[in-house]
Amino acid sequence: MSIWGKIVGGAAGFALGGPIGALLGGLAGHAVDVMNQSTQLEPPSTRRTPRTAWTGIVPRISRSPSA
Hints:
mainly alpha
């Protein structure tokens, strides 16, 4: 769990709006941390490339016995 978004958001909020800005900045930083964490936990894509007819036919033709 990252705390850097909360720290940066709170510091920026405090600089712009005092204590209330620090609370709002901390909330915004927390939201950024959650969004960033959820994108890192997604599994890699398991999508396969579509097979064309030639990828199945050509190896079979090349293995067939010649007469």
